[in-house]
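Now for a chain:

_____
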Amino acid sequence: MRIGFFDSGIGGMTVLHQALQLLPNDDYIFYADTLHVPYGEKTKEEVRKYIFDAVDFMANQGIKALVIACNTATSIAVDDLRQKYDFPILGIEPAVKPAVQSCEKKRKKVLVFATNLTLREEKFHNLVKSIDHHDIVNSLPLPGLVQFAEDFEFRDEKVVPYLIENLSTFDLKQYGTVVLGCTHFPYFEKIIRGIFPKEVDIISGSVGTAKNLKRILEARNQMNDGTGDILFYKSGYRVEDKETLSNYKKLLEMLDRINLKIGV
């Protein structure tokens, strides 16, 4: 049986990439709900429907575990999904806890990049409230990065002005860690790193999610029963055209060159 990965778009491939490093002999289904991306700009009710439709589809394909490789979808639906399905379901959340722990020691602040919907969710606010005892966590929605990624637009001349404009009111020297709270954002790790002082850490929760997936499958004795094959779907339709599959391969190769620190 395959491992399912779900995201609103191609952002979840940043988490799939981490899983491939740890579980190279498993088989995968990657489902991108591209008809409805971006989720971060839609209502909670709309997004919940899209998520459950997608997971119903993947469950019918036969999966042994599911990774919700989307911060927004995790915050909205992961608890309810776990009540409905009997296979393990893993989510991803902004790596705020390790960021706070690190920055408290350095007497620096934390800056969380995420989508508007993630930052509005009670789950995010409860997470910050539980660990940010010295009021060092700031947040910034960056929906434009999601669209850039979905458009395969990774050129500095397009992305850098967008980031500089959105960061214009922040004193970047105050921050010790930037948390990439959307799975689309690691594609821009090098560009973000170039804007911030060199001593600033940039972290994501994707590494921790992949490690947790491996641990769960080991405990269930469900590892390494495949060949590393990946089936790609867009909103329920199998991706078979060579151009799109080639672009997906290029994205995974791009991620080989990214140097994210471990988050959660």
Remarks:
- The chain has a mean pLDDT of 92.
